[in-house]
Amino acid sequence: MLRFLIGLITFSIIQSTSAQCEMLVELTKDLANPKTKQAFKNYIKGNDDGMYSYLQLAKAGRTELRTSVEALQAFTKLQKNEKLIKLGVSKGDLAGMLKKLEASPNTTFTDFDKVLNKLNKSYNDPLKGGNSKGAHGVLKTLDDEFDNLLKGNSIKFEKRVENARDINSMSAEDLTVELLIDGQIIKRIEVKYCTNCVDEKTIIKQFIERDLYNATNINQIKWKVYGQDFTKSDLQTILSSADGKKALEGLGVDKVKQLLPKDEFLTNQNFVQRILENLERKEVFNLIFK
């Protein structure tokens, strides 16, 4: 242990800032904490890359991640990931995101390691995207929308929710933004990073049967689409299709009334047409997809 502490001190001197010295104190506390897993203690010893990642997560106030071996490994690979650079997410961008988190200690992350782990997986399909590319999109969304939607709130990643398709199955929301005070959901954010993945199947399963089904207000729903020019006309075509109308009908009149509380003309007979027309309005499309 003495040799290890000497190594830590040397590492801190090399980094040479008071902030990193403070992090050394925090690391010492983590190592002495009986609740800290032995796997972390074994991993961090003599591991400069692991230490650097620990320091970045600790400076950002990510207590829930800094002693997670999986999160540290993923973050280390993330900084060396050439795909990030190609997709416009640089090491400086990552540092910028961490600085935003550091400046907003009230912003909390839950299950962010799920996103980090996906960054090391393959793209799968160049058109449809995949685990890794989708995770890159989540990082980009965090950076793009932090001040606008996320700051000061509780951010949950891949939260499991029910869907209208099958009450025995669950779906995942990429980012669920909740008020810290009472857990009220502000936004349900879906992220797509692809050239052709927002199609009829995706809109029906994820937008209608998951997002509209779980939302209590249309304003809660936000889609961030990178790499594909998804237009209002595309949405109209999908919603107006036989399968699109069938999925909207599956929501039921009570759910549609909840989503459109101010629609005085909505009835049991026309609720599908009323929500279809509402979603096709330019201002509603822009609110969700722009």
Reconstruct the topology from this structure.
Elements: H1 2-15, H2 18-32, H3 38-44, H4 48-59, H5 63-66, H6 69-79, H7 82-86, H8 91-103, E1 108-110, H9 113-118, H10 131-150, E2 154-162, E3 170-178, E4 185-193, H11 200-214, E5 221-226, H12 232-240, H13 242-251, H14 253-259, H15 271-279, H16 282-289
Parallel strand pairs: 1-2, 4-5
Antiparallel strand pairs: 2-3, 3-4
Helix pairs in contact: 2-4, 4-6, 8-10, 11-13
Which terms would index this structure?
alpha/beta; 2 domains; 16 helices; 5 strands; elongated
Give the termini distance in whole angstroms: 54 Å
- Could you give the order of the helices and strands? HHHHHHHHEHHEEEHEHHHHH
Number of domains as seen in the coordinates = 2
Low-confidence sequence ranges: 1-16, 123-129
* Biggest sheet statistics: 5 strands, mixed
Molecular structure report:
- This protein is α/β, with parallel strands linked by helices and 290 residues long.
- It has 2 domains: 1-80; 81-289, no CATH class.
- The chain has 16 helices and 5 strands.
- The protein has helices at residues 2-15, 18-32, 38-44, 48-59, 63-66, 69-79, 82-86, 91-103, 113-118, 131-150, 200-214, 232-240, 242-251, 253-259, 271-279, 282-289; strands at residues 108-110, 154-162, 170-178, 185-193, 221-226.
- The chain has a 5-stranded mixed sheet with strand order 1-2-3-4-5.
- Strand 4 (185-193), helix 11 (200-214) and strand 5 form a beta-alpha-beta unit.
- Helix 2 (18-32) crosses helix 4 (48-59).
- The longest helix has 20 residues, at 131-150.
- The chain is elongated and about 65 Å long.
